[in-house]
Amino acid sequence: MDYRYSDYTVEQLREEVGRLKEKAQKAEQLGNISEVAINERKMQVAIAYMINPDDFSPRDVHELKGDPGYKFKINYINGVFAWGHRLNLLNEVNEKEEALPISLLGDKVKE
Q1: What are phi and psi of 106, to 5 degrees?
Q2: What is the pLDDT of residues 81-107, one digit of tens each?
Q3: Which helix (H) or strand (E) holds 17?
Q4: Confidence of residue 3 (pLDDT cuts 50, 70, 90)
Q5: Cα dihedral value 57, 71, 106, 51, nearest 10
């Protein structure tokens, strides 16, 4: 299928996440670490399409799922990606701006 995730129904997205999870597990069993990472990244993007981007706002700071040493400060939202900067435990801002699927953003941090 050559569809974009934005064209998928929620049900199709759930099926795709299941397929990607299986592919990642098989790759892990075969020791193909890079393929595991690729499938996990695709899975996060597919999951992001099941989340409402309007739930995220510029200047909000969120926990980062799977990376407890960092938080993420949103500069802006573009589709299902949050653009912004990582903050370390000392609230120091990483210079490099990056885009993350909103599915990787955890709870909003009270400032």
Answers
A1: -90, -150
A2: 999 999 999 989 999 999 999 999 999
A3: helix 10-29
A4: confident
A5: 40
3-state secondary structure of 6: helix
pTM (2 decimals)?
0.87
Mean pLDDT of the chain, nearest integer: 94
E strand map for 9-90? 61-64, 71-78, 81-87
* Residue carrying the six token digits 């193909």: 32
- Give the C-alpha separation, 109 to 63, whole Å: 7
Structure token pair of residue 60: 């909000």
| Residue 3 CB-half CA count within 13 A | 10
83 φ, ψ (degrees, to nearest 5): -100, 135
